[in-house]
Amino acid sequence: MIGFIGLGIMGENMARRMLESGQDLIIHNRTKDKATALLEKGAIWADSPAEVAQKADIVFTMLTTPSVVESVIYGEQGLLSGLSNNTLWVDTSTVKPAYSEKWAKDAKDQGGRFVDAPVAGSKGPAEQGKLHFLVGGKKQDIEEITPLLEVMGQSVQHMGDVGKGSATKLAVNLTLVQSMASFAEAVSFGESVGLDRAQLADLLLMLPTTAPVLDGKRDMIVHGTFETQFPLEHAYKDLQQLSETAYESGAPLPISHAAKELFAFAKQKGLGREDFAAVYLALKQDK
Ligand code: NAP
């Protein structure tokens, strides 16, 4: 039996693919309503994270911030209290590596195992099973879960010991979030000097100087509608995780820190649950 905890934008799609591949799936989410479609397709509901861990051999989590993960794993009904018999916990949330390392130790203390396996790719790739898994942990554990990861993703990148998947994910999102911020800044600058928004956006996207991932953000910026694929508040959280990690390792992050403050400003403006492309609205001049 496979367990899945956290049925948000990413988790719901990942869990669905696992179910559709024929796996027996036991699921839990803070908001039970979000599990309805999966329950109708045959998943089993668990009343707590502990129950998922007791009944599953491998448990996936796809949650938001480190403190949310900790609220799900600790306590009487927490995931850790249900781990035993070598159960393997695979955390796919984006967090800093120090948390992955801490939770690996917690899992081991409970007789379980741990792998960090955050993902590159957003809502669309999660729906289509096209994610890239960035994985840290023991080779044997990763080999055991690879067939499951391949149901949800197109590649499995083993980056090293526990924590190295999370470290890699922070490096990936450094480029993603900076690219988004610089595209938004270029378009809002262009408009300020009288250029046409759509014409400029299309030109930028045609040139090799703009990251290809931004093709998917073109319509959001041109039409001003930001249907959420990657919530802006998570982009801000990732920059914070990056910042804390770089402080510990001593790496300077001058551009990421400027981007982080921009995302903080956008979140303060109430854009936290919009797609992260809405950072453009924080820059755009009111006319
Ligand atoms: P999301 O849609 O906001 O879903 C978050 C999940 O966490 C939901 O299951 C939510 O439960 C749960 N949660 C939030 N606060 C909670 C709390 N206090 N207690 C218990 N559960 C709580 O997030 P997402 O976009 O799927 O992202 C999940 C993770 O993947 C994040 O770490 C994100 O950075 C990362 N990620 C996201 C993307 C993307 O494009 N969206 C891509 C790659 C990686 P409820 O349903 O009850 O709210």
TrEMBL record:
Gene3D superfamilies to which the protein is assigned, alphabetical: N-(1-d-carboxylethyl)-l-norvaline Dehydrogenase, domain 2, NAD(P)-binding Rossmann-like Domain
Record key words, sorted: NAD, Oxidoreductase
Query: Domain 6-phosphogluconate dehydrogenase NADP-binding spans what residues?
Result: 2-160
The chain positions of domain 3-hydroxyisobutyrate dehydrogenase-like NAD-binding read 163-280
> What protein family does this chain belong to?
Belongs to the HIBADH-related family.
Output this protein's name.
Answer: 3-hydroxyisobutyrate dehydrogenase-like beta-hydroxyacid dehydrogenase
Q: Which organism is it from?
A: Alkalicoccobacillus murimartini
